[in-house]
Design brief:
Blueprint lengths: L1 H7 L6 E4 L4 H9 L4 E4 L4 H17 L17 H23 L6 H7 L4 H12 L3 H17 L6 H7 L5 H12 L3 H14 L1
Parallel strand pairs: 1-2
Amino acid sequence: VARKIRETDKNGAILFLTGFDKFDYARQAISVRALDYLRKPYNEQELVFAVEDAIRQVSVQLPARPAQPPAPAEPLRREEDEDMRTAIIRAEISRFIDAHYGEDISMQDAAAALRYSDAYFCKLFKQCFKVNFSAYLNEYRVNKARQLILDPRLSLKDIGAAVGYSDANYFTRVFKRLTGQTPSEYRMAAAEKAVQG
């Protein structure tokens, strides 16, 4: 059936949910570019995850997956499969944050842009990054600010705005909480270090 579907729909998302656990079946699923291969009895969370991935792939019109490498001698263990899935999601979230950190974004904005429910995205984010969205975003913004502060031509207020903080006082508080220094103290320390060589 999957081969017939592929003849008419090259980019459709195909999921296998089966009681067959023979490696040959999994290899055949890979050959038709199945999005996932779940075995019965299945974990409900895995199934929901796979279906959400399929819906997102079809609705976002992602480009077709690259050709799969030859099947490994042994099927992937669930932990390896989960690690790969987590890495893909982490990369997707990281791309979104890198593209939008300078804007006034929230966890809900990220969830909507990536087509996840708020609750599910919150759970995924914590699973991928081990912290919540706002903590990660603040750390990301402050790291970007630290790079910009090294350029003395930029004002600290402009740097704060460039990394997503429209309120300069809030930017200073967050920066100090994460680095132990205010932005101006950080800039002075960096300048002194550069002079000393």
